[in-house]
Amino acid sequence: MPRSLEIETSSFPIAGTFTISRGSKTTAEVVTCVLKDGGVTGWGECVPYRRYGETIESVTAQIEATRPLLEGGLELGDLAQAMPPGAARNAVDCALWDLAAKRSGKSVAASLGLQNPHPLTTAFTISLGEPEFMADQARKNADRALLKVKVGTADDESRILAVRGGAPESTIILDANEGWTEENLARHLQIAAKAGVALVEQPLPAGRDEILAEIERPILVCADESVHHTGDLASLRDRYDAINIKLDKTGGLTEALAMKLEAQRLGFKIMLGCMVGTSLAMAPAVLLAQDADFVDLDGPLLLARDRQPGLRYAASLVWPPERDLWG
After folding, report:
1. Which entry of 148, 246, 249, 260 is annotated as an active-site residue?
2. 69, 121, 141, 243: which sits with the fewest CB atoms below 10 Å from its CB?
3. Average pLDDT of the residues in 108-117
4. Is there a binding annotation on residue 175?
5. Where does the chain hold its CATH 3.30.390.10 domain(s)?
6. Considering the domain 4-108, what is its CATH architecture?
7. Does domain 120-318 have CATH number 3.20.20.120?
8. Catalytic member of 102, 140, 148, 150
9. Would you call 194 a catalytic residue per the annotation?
10. What is the pLDDT of residues 243-265, one digit of tens each?
C-alpha cells in the first residue's frame, strides 16, 4: 500500500486565558500531519503562529502542497529542500521521524544516541496581568522549581517584584515577547537582576535589538523571535547569551538538532521552548532538551485537556515520551 497523507486540524481549550504582551487567547489551534506507510503511522503536530504570518489555513495549504512528494516517498534528508522553515515543516518533519522509528523498530531516542533519556525540570508559565493577579499565580505555583513569567509592558517593575514575592524560592525567567524599549531596557534588566531573575527572553523587537550589544547585561538575555534557524546564529553572538529553540520555528527536529549543535559551538546557552500545544508537539522537544540549560515545555499543562495518551507531568518534571505517543 502506498504512503498516504492526512492533515488534521484541532482546537484544544486553554485552562483560563493565556496572555502575553501581544494579546490573549483561550484555545490552542493545532495542525497534525499523519503519514501512513506499510501498516504504520507517523504523527507530527505544529502550532501556527500569527506573529510569523502563519494561520491554520496557510499551514494546512503548505502541507497539502507537499502531498505529491510525501506520498511519493519523500524522506527526511530531502525535506529541507521541499519546504521552508516554520510550523508546516515541523509537523511533516516530526511525522517522518515518528514514521521512520516505527518502521525500523528503533526509537528516535536511540537514533539520537540517548540510551536513557531522563525526566526534565520544565518551566511553568504565568500569564501577563496586573501585579496582584501575577503574585497570586506565583503563590499558587511557588512549589515549582522554575517559573516563566510573561512581561512586556512599559513598567514591569511591580510585576517582577510581585512574582518574586509570591515565589521566593523558584528560579524565574522572564519573557518580554519584544515588549520592552530602548528607553526602559536597562532599568528592567537591573530590576530583574536585583530580583534574582535567571534570564530574560526577547526584551526588544526582532530586528531592533542592536543596543543589546552596547549595554551591560546583568543577567542572561535569550533570543526568541530574533532566532529561527541555524543561519541566524552568527549575527546574534554580540547581543544574546542564549537562544530559544522551538521546533515550530526551526521547521522540525532535524533543523533543531543542527541548530543546537552550532549554538553550543558558538557558546550560547540553550533553552528548549514551545508554543501552546499538546503532548504530541512537546514529545520531540523533550528528547532534544536532554542537556539544555533551560526547558520550557509546559504547553500541555496550560490546556484544559490534552491528547491521550500524553506526556507524563508531575510537579515540575516532564518525562520522555512513551512510544505509543511519539518516537
Report:
1. 246
2. 121
3. 96
4. yes
5. 4-108
6. 2-Layer Sandwich (3.30)
7. yes
8. 150
9. no
10. 999 999 999 999 999 999 999 99
